[in-house]
Amino acid sequence: MTSQASTAAPINSSNNWVRWANLALMLYTLLVAVSMVGSGFKWAVGKEANTLFLFASHPVASLMIGIIATALIQSSSTVTSIIVGLVAGGLPVETAIPMIMGANIGTTVTNTVVSMGHARCKDEFRRAFTCATIHDFFNLLAVSIFLPLEIMSGFLEKISGWLVAPLIFEGNLSMKGLDFMGTLTTPLVNSTKDMLSTLTGNWGAIALIVIGITLIFVSITMMGTLMRSLMVGRAKELLHSAIGHSPIHGILSGTIVTILVQSSSTTTSLMVPLVGTKVLKVRDVYPFTLGANIGTCVTALLAATAVTGLNAVFAMQIALVHLAFNVLATLLIFGIPFLREIPLKCAEVLGEIAAKTKLAVIAYLGLVFIAIPAGILLMTK
């Protein structure tokens, strides 16, 4: 028995080293992919970059694009990384901010799908669906407060600009300490661009963007899988230690667990069956969910380090917008008792309705994540 145990330990250790190596490779792939999206965007439109997203210049239309894209892909990390790449290619930060907000809303569909696993038991489903949708209502409330404020004052753009200012060289928009990323990513991006330059018209640029987006999706998916396999024990420990303590402890634990597993959908979906089976209460997991919102910002910050040149500062700025939005929304909404209760009460009401008729779930998903955003997007063209 002893010899078998001693043999198993090196094998597990070896497997972990392979996982860490693969994780490093996927991180590099993410950085290259973001650089490809930005480079392809600039290649396609040149100096007319600001006009390409003219249809999204309306903040509400931009918000809807973020919601639909994330609802379809079901990864806010992927969408925000793509947005970072687009900003690196010339998309104005002002236009991208509502997209970032929309990505927060769209990512919560997974929770609702997980709650359907409790559909056979009415009471279980009511609790599970309430847990699943509290994330939705928090994000909807956050956007309904912060988007009008942003339109009127541009405060998120100003705050992120202030945060990114120390990274700027005087008279230059390259970022201090992050220029080494160009050495790592530029050769592969340029060689890919050279191979695609034989294509006529803008097809080369379009192909580079598509390759970049595909690599972002693959790298983030693989990073999430690898992080979960490497960190699942620590994440579970944090998860168990977070429940039943103070709200601040719950928020911090939710943030750390999401950073470890690289997926807010995974973090929040873990809570749904626990609430459905009455192991936890919705109010207990509420702060943990808010921490997941903050933890998912790390991917965009990593993606922004891949950008070099004139637009590097703007790429980092939009990543910081994502972080500032989630932190400020948590402080404001959870910090004010009246606002704190709104997502909870809305989720409870919707949970009661869904328990009575499952058609309410289909109607909710279809309206909030597809029909209403698509309708508004068509009207604002």
Automatic annotation (TrEMBL):
Membrane topology, from the record: Multi-pass membrane protein
GO biological process, one term: sodium-dependent phosphate transport
This protein's GO CC annotations: plasma membrane
Domain of life: Bacteria
Alphabetical UniProt keywords: Cell membrane, Membrane, Transmembrane, Transmembrane helix
One example GO MF annotation: sodium:phosphate symporter activity
Chief location of this protein within or outside the cell: membrane
Presence of keyword Protein biosynthesis: no
Transmembrane stretches, start-end: 20-41, 53-75, 95-116, 137-156, 203-227, 285-307, 319-339, 359-379
Coiled coil segments of this chain: none
Protein name, as recorded: Sodium-dependent phosphate transporter
Organism: Candidatus Enterovibrio escicola
